[in-house]
């Protein structure tokens, strides 16, 4: 599966957000630092109106959304790269995530702030600096060991050193490793370096309850910062999201309307996380079940099949494929088939977002 790690300074609202996301109280929210000690992992359904549309057309008895994993990562403080606070554990946990949701406190109020005042741009810099320092120190060590391997005749080591040196150049300038310009061929080996600052980042501005629809001056500064970095930012109120998470679907709509929101902020977070990870959705649709599945962008049909079952990938013959728009416009599978909109795709077919598949395979 793919996952997003939720990071940020203590008391910015990470656990509140995580709890709202998973609608559980697994991660305890409390008004003091270091309350989130173990990484908490939760899976959430990815909201997708297309799935409901497909299910309605096919009269599917069951609807199953695709899921995305979120990990609530223990709070980090200034000095984490030197082992302060829960520094080492934090760094190890973040290394295992595919993308980072960086929660920034943009709400004023009584809650204790570890830095003494509300300033999300400063907070972002504190976290980024710790991550960059950790990458820098790690890389300096690794370049040396790789140099020994290169001397010993290891051919891969040379290419690895070259990539590491390029990351070191930007890190020494105080910029995250994700700003290194990479060719298509270099992306995968670079990803394998598993640098903390090479992961894609979404800034999540946690604003006060009455600012969820509008944002505030703090979140506006974050938006500016994100833009300058080529990153994305979303505005939510974690407190509101945790209230929403307790409500029935009807109550939710009423509450949302009363505060000027069209949908829960969490939907924005989930969709942005999905986009950040470079994922896309395909569907399987029948009378029993309409289901959304996740695969990485660029995957070929057999890799999509493997999401359903490894046997389908192993025995893969072809993928009968209908695009979403045709399926909807032509009233479902039969209509699409009659109109010649069902394509027979082979093992090299690259999956497109919204494809509806029937896989044919040998057992
Ligand atoms: P974490 O340490 O980053 O996981 O932060 P928590 O989620 O535990 O939140 C710390 C404190 O801030 C708790 O007392 C929360 O109730 C409070 N808090 C979180 N989000 C909001 C918010 O949007 N508005 C307000 N007023 N308080 C919040």
From TrEMBL:
Residue positions binding ATP: 11-16
Chain ranges of the TGS domain: 278-361
Keyword Metal-binding in record: yes
Domain OBG-type G: start-end pairs: 2-256
SUPFAM superfamilies: P-loop containing nucleoside triphosphate hydrolases, TGS-like
Keywords: ATP-binding, Magnesium, Metal-binding, Nucleotide-binding
Organism domain of life: Bacteria
Cofactor: Mg(2+)
InterPro entries cross-referenced by the UniProt entry: ATPase_YchF/OLA1, Beta-grasp_dom_sf, G_OBG, GTP-bd, P-loop_NTPase, TGS, TGS-like, TGS-like_dom_sf
UniProt record similarity statement: Belongs to the TRAFAC class OBG-HflX-like GTPase superfamily. OBG GTPase family. YchF/OLA1 subfamily.
Biological role stated in the UniProt entry: ATPase that binds to both the 70S ribosome and the 50S ribosomal subunit in a nucleotide-independent manner.
Record's protein name: Ribosome-binding ATPase YchF
Species for this entry: Inquilinus ginsengisoli
